[in-house]
Each structure stands twice: as C-alpha cells, then as structure tokens.
Design goal:
Length: 268
C-alpha cells in the first residue's frame, strides 16, 4: 500500500502534505528531501506531516526541501487548516496555533512574537530592535523576531532591487544566527501595505512565506511604519496580517488543494 499525499500551496509556497494520523509514516531528513526533490520526487518547498496530538486536534511537522525540520510555517498552517476543517488547534514545534478554515481564506492565530536575543536565538546579547550589523547591498540595522521560527527583517527603498538570491544564503548561515535565519527584505508601499521578498532557510527563494509576512508586519508595526492591519504583498500574492503590541498575530490568506497522489511506501 502506498503513501497518500496532498499537493497544496499557499500563494505558490508549495507543499506535499501527508496525513499520518491513522497510518503512521516514518519521516527523516533524507526521506523528506527525496520527496521534496523537484526532479526525482514529488517536488515542494516543504513536506508537511500531520500526526496525532495529545493536546491539540493534530500535530504538524514541517520539513524544508533540504530535509531540515523547523518549528513553524504560516502558509502550510492554512493548508492544514483547510484539510482538517472547522476551527482546529494545531500542535507545532513552535507551539500550539489556532486556525479557522471557513471560507476560501483560512485564518491562523500564529501566537505572540518573541523579541529576546536568546528567544530568536542570536549568538550573543544584542539589540534585536535595531541590530547594529550590516551586510553587502545596503542591508543594515535589521530587526530580528521569532514567530515560531527565526526571522531577520530589512526595510529597504526597493525590495526587488536586492540580490536576495546571492546575499540570502550568506545571511542565513552567518554565525550570528546559531539556528540559521529566514531573511526578509521589504519596503513600505503605503500606511497599510508592505511589499516583501523572503529567502527561507533550508528552502531558498520562495513565492511566499507566511511566517516571514508575520514577522515583517510585526517589525513594521513596531517601528511605526504601518498600522495594525497590514496587507503584505509577496511574489505569489497577498496576505493580511493583524497584530497589536502585546497580542497574537492573525494571518489570513488563500490555501489551495491542487491534487491527491500516492507515493510508493518504499520511496526515499
């Protein structure tokens, strides 16, 4: 018997989703990377494994295309909410999140952002609000935030002008970030609108990054660049992020089921 999977995406950030709540599926870095390979596997930015949870409706495990396991993925959370239906509580390595799957635009409460240098984490104590560091291409004084996984956010005059494919992996692997880092470059379009591009650790350039949109919106709100409800435009489309200081982050956006398939049980 093969392994049934769902091919899904959120704004082009694509996933192979395996529901293993009733039939356990063994997953490790090598197998996840093999399934994610776009030439010899199914192909995806992340592989998502849905498992039973002892204190939520389901547990979601997230493997990047390189096989590394991470704590959160906003676009995948909306896809899982769409599969589960209703108002599911989803356990992740970054904490339990709550979702609402009604309608065409699922919403996910991503929890409260964390700003402490040791919560992100950074390699040493440093101001995470205006980090006194910089890299090539005019990328300096970023903000660092953990929204279930770590992000660094740069506000620039034009995010499309940044050679993110070159500088992204350099920043991702900088020793300042002991667990590596997701790299966000954004510019302000208007008082309630940001444009964003993201280099995801372990996945590279993607069409959209839900946690990146959350982190960037929070950074812009904290710096007074936008209001508390923000449209974040990514290459794959738009997300709406709502956040008030001291509260949790609500992310709303599309999730799309593309097709259902079956992998050989021995694959990977």
């Amino acid at each position: 018997m093969g392994i049934r999977f769902h091919k899904m995406h959120g704004l082009g950030n694509d996933f192979v989703v395996i529901d293993a709540r009733e039939m356990p599926v063994t997953m490790d870095a090598a197998r996840a990377a093999a399934i994610a390979d776009r030439h010899t596997g199914v192909g995806c930015d992340q592989l998502i494994l849905i498992e039973p949870s002892t204190w939520a409706d389901a547990r979601m495990r997230i493997f990047n295309a390189d096989g590394s396991e991470v704590g959160a993925c906003g676009n995948a959370s909306r896809c899982v909410a769409l599969l589960l239906g209703g108002h599911p509580r989803i356990e992740t390595a970054g904490g339990v999140i709550e979702a609402r799957a009604s309608g065409d635009l699922p919403s996910v409460d991503m929890g409260a952002p964390r700003f402490g240098w040791d919560e992100i984490p950074l390699a040493y104590a440093i101001d995470s609000f205006h980090m006194p560091v910089g890299w090539d291409g005019g990328l300096d004084t970023p903000m660092a935030i953990n929204v279930g996984n770590p992000h660094v956010i740069f506000f620039v005059p034009d995010c499309d002008a940044v050679d993110l494919g070159t500088i992204g992996p350099v920043i991702e692997h900088d020793p300042m970030f002991p667990e590596r880092i997701n790299v966000n470059v954004a510019h302000v379009v208007g008082p309630d609108h940001l444009k964003l591009r993201v280099w995801e650790r372990g996945a590279g350039l993607t069409q959209a990054c839900g946690t990146g949109a959350c982190a960037t919106a929070v950074a812009a709100i904290r710096r007074g660049l936008v209001g508390n409800r923000v449209k974040v435009s990514l290459p794959g489309g738009d997300l709406q992020i709502d956040w008030k200081p001291g509260g949790t982050i609500l992310m709303t956006g599309p999730a799309t089921h593309v097709f259902t398939g079956e992998l050989a049980d021995s694959f990977g």
